[in-house]
Specification:
about 240 residues, alpha+beta, two-stranded antiparallel ribbon, 2 helices, about 15% strand, disordered N terminus
Length: about 240
């Protein structure tokens, strides 16, 4: 690059400063043209004083449109400097010095409110005391019922233990009865077998006696025959 050549001058820093100045001027212009502060509707009270004038505008040279007494409730519309625009409740709006406004109600109204609150609290206390008495009675009845339930539970538990013991005895009795039935069945079978054997023995004994009787008759008959033949022989020898 030629050392004698002068580089072109940059305008970018000046452009930034120009834009910054325009922004500051516009912001200041907006602050100047901004209307007085607008507030949400708020109920305020006039501070104790003799009488407070309400004027058409912000200044003592404006005409008085109303005079309000201390303790009167007004609706705040907006603030502007030392003045406040209020709504008087009778379709009138005006300006008064904001030092006469307070968010605290007057003493007589505070006393009235406290009296009402006291009466309300007294009624609530009476209701709570009554509820407490009822709950105490219910609690006592509940404790009594609980004691009865505990006693009944103890009795039921004792009866259950007795039932368990009786059940064990019943089970043992059933087991013994089953064994006895088994023994009786075996004895019945043995008795049946013995009866059969006895019947057979009786039949055999009858047969034996019958055979014995028949043998005795046979022997008698044979002896008779033998005796007759002997007599015949003797008679023949003698003749």
């Amino acid at each position: 690059m030629n050392p004698l050549t002068v580089p072109p001058l940059s305008l970018q820093p000046f452009s930034r400063q120009f834009r910054l100045c325009n922004f500051l001027l516009g912001f200041a212009f907006c602050l100047i043209l901004t209307p007085p502060q607008q507030l949400h509707a708020q109920t305020l009270y006039i501070k104790p004083a003799t009488e407070i004038p309400v004027r058409r505008g912000q200044g003592t040279d404006y005409k008085i449109i109303a005079v309000v007494e201390d303790g009167k409730a007004v609706e705040l519309i907006e603030y502007s400097g030392d003045w406040a625009k209020v709504h008087l409740g009778n379709n009138k709006e005006g300006w008064l010095l904001k030092r006469y406004l307070s968010n605290q109600p007057p003493l007589d109204k505070q006393v009235q409110n406290l009296t009402i609150e006291k009466e309300t609290l007294t009624e609530k206390t009476a209701v709570l005391e009554k509820q407490f008495t009822e709950l105490t009675e219910v609690h006592g009845q509940t404790e009594h019922n609980l004691s009865e339930c505990i006693a009944e539970r103890t009795d039921i538990r004792d009866q259950f233990e007795e039932l368990k013991s009786d059940t064990a005895d019943v089970q043992l009795t059933k087991h013994s009865l089953a064994e006895a039935r088994s023994e009786i069945s075996e004895l019945q079978e043995e008795l049946s077998r013995l009866q059969i054997e006895n019947s057979v023995l009786k039949k055999n004994e009858t047969i034996i006696w019958f055979m014995a009787g028949a043998g005795v008759l046979l022997i008698g008959w044979l002896l008779g025959r033998f005796t007759k033949s002997t007599k015949k022989r003797r008679s023949s020898l003698l003749s």
